[in-house]
Amino acid sequence: MTGGADELTLVLVLAAALMHASWNAVAKASGDPLVNIAVITVTGGVIALPFMAWFPWPSDETWRWLLISGVIHFLYQLNLARMYRLGDLSQVYPIARGLAPLGVAAMGALFVDERLAWNQVLGLVLSAAAIGVLGRSGGRGGQRARGVGTALFVAVLIGLYTYSDGRGVRSVENPLLYIAWTCFMSSLPFGLYTAVVRRQTVVDSLRRGGARAVAGGVLATVGYGIALWAMARTPLALVASLREASVLFAALIGAFVLRESFGRIRILASAVLVVGLVLVQLASG
How much is the pTM? Predict the structure, then answer.
């Protein structure tokens, strides 16, 4: 990457990766993950409101992607809350984030007859081995196994919304229009759902961790906005590769901030996973 603009993109996407790992840590750290994630997403929706009023009404094509993204994000948020209720951040986050681009590359090779370069094959092997280690690092408890299983499903949803939002942000002239609308569309349904299913405990949950969740919402909104902005001006594979640093950030936060077990093993496995994912993504770009 050369030139001031490209260097700025590199720094911002890496910062967005740290923001993503950080708001996920907030969702996991205390209280009810469902309420925390609802506050995080609603905060993003509130931040988006002024931008929605400023920009013109989305086109029919953009609306199609917004609706698709809204449905996928609702399922993602619901399963993300379950994932953090069942598993450690340093285990389930790297699995969920790492499998999404890995699955895309593997499916391309298996079903679309895409030829893989040697470094892509090496990346797939390294990533698969690292995810295997992460999956076994929490012992054999039923709750941990369900957490890993949920992380696998979250990985599928991440791949789906990454594709839909990548297409959606390219359907508008100004990426901020799509960023604002998708933040709002992904916040309203989940916020209402949580208010109904947690109506008896939501106030207590907000007292315990509401302020942290709002801060997490700011990080989530700014971080995802940066990612979508970068997708509009930089190859998707390159953006995806840089964002994989969030896997290592999450393992470090889980080990040193949340004091989760198996810290050294998970940090090492996450570092290997990042290397493998970068090999896969950059080779395919």
Answer: 0.86
